[in-house]
Design brief:
The chain is an alpha+beta fold. It is built from four helices and 15 strands. It starts with 6 loop residues before the first helix and ends with a strand. Bound molecules: 2-amino-4-trifluoromethylsulfanyl-butyric acid and cobalt (II) ion. The site of cobalt (II) ion has 5 residues, from loops.
């Protein structure tokens, strides 16, 4: 069931999203050669807690960290640890905040320079997928407008589109209905109406579409071990269009 948000709820979600954007503006400059992924998790956690929020992912289905850090062929749900970042890495950072019961969700892929031209093109294309998906969303349209925009742009660029994981409703929980796939399938295709809050999150692979989960029970990698990029915004459908709540 899709839960439409009232004005008061939307204001709470907006504040949570603004805090998440501020967190990313502190976190992203810390992505440098030599830092560990656990260090990045600590930066996120300390920022969130010191601003009165709770890391929304920490403890969610027993996930052990505040941040997902997914490097290179890792697609999503990489667990922070002792891994040291090095030049050429592309680093997906995914985070959510629970601020007084209002949930935000966003992700970005950050390069540790110099990265390959292929990695640059993958990141640019995935960013464009997110931008085009946001432009495709409007009140009166449908969820698959978003799906189609992501899929068409990624495929035109010759990249793989992850199917096993989707965007989703968000705002009063980490994950809510509806699912927001990055391809047009036969699943539900609800109308986009004012009051919907959605996390749109293209996950695009330099190689094939396939992914698999590692033995840690979390980390999702590309099956062919090609690079993968991930960007995500929380948006609200409003009477006049779309508001990007996690814009930075
Ligand atoms: N960020 C993920 C998403 O966008 C959710 C992470 S689930 C967690 O849907 F368990 F890893 F936290
Ligand atoms: Co999400």
């Amino acid at each position: 069931m899709v839960k439409l948000k009232n004005r008061e709820q939307l204001e709470g979600i907006r504040t949570s999203c603004r805090l998440l954007s501020e967190m990313f503006s502190v976190l992203v400059p810390r992505v440098k050669e030599g830092i560990t992924t656990a260090d990045l998790d600590a930066v996120a956690r300390e920022f969130i807690v010191s601003h009165g929020g709770k890391p929304a992912f920490l403890g969610y289905y027993d996930y052990p960290a505040s941040l997902c850090v997914s490097v290179n062929e890792e697609v999503i749900h990489g667990i922070p640890g002792s891994r040291v970042l090095k030049p050429g890495d592309i680093v997906g950072l995914d985070c959510g905040i629970d601020l007084h019961g209002y949930f935000s969700d966003a992700a970005i892929t950050v390069p540790v320079p110099p990265v390959s031209p292929k990695a640059e093109r993958l990141m640019a294309t995935t960013r464009e997928c997110l931008d085009l998906a946001i432009k495709a969303a409007h009140p009166g349209g449908r969820v698959h407008d978003i799906s189609r925009a992501v899929f068409a742009h990624a495929k035109t660029a010759g990249f793989g589109v992850v199917r096993q994981y989707c965007g989703h409703g968000v705002g009063l929980a980490v994950h809510e209905d509806p699912q927001v796939p990055n391809y047009v399938g036969s699943g539900p295709n609800p109308r986009l109406v004012p009051g919907m809050v959605l996390a749109i999150e293209p996950m695009i692979n330099a190689g094939g579409d396939g992914v698999e989960e590692l033995d840690d029970g979390w980390t999702v990698v590309t099956r062919d071990r090609s690079l993968s990029a991930h960007y995500e915004h929380t948006i609200a459908i409003t009477e006049d269009g779309v508001e990007v709540l996690t814009a930075w």
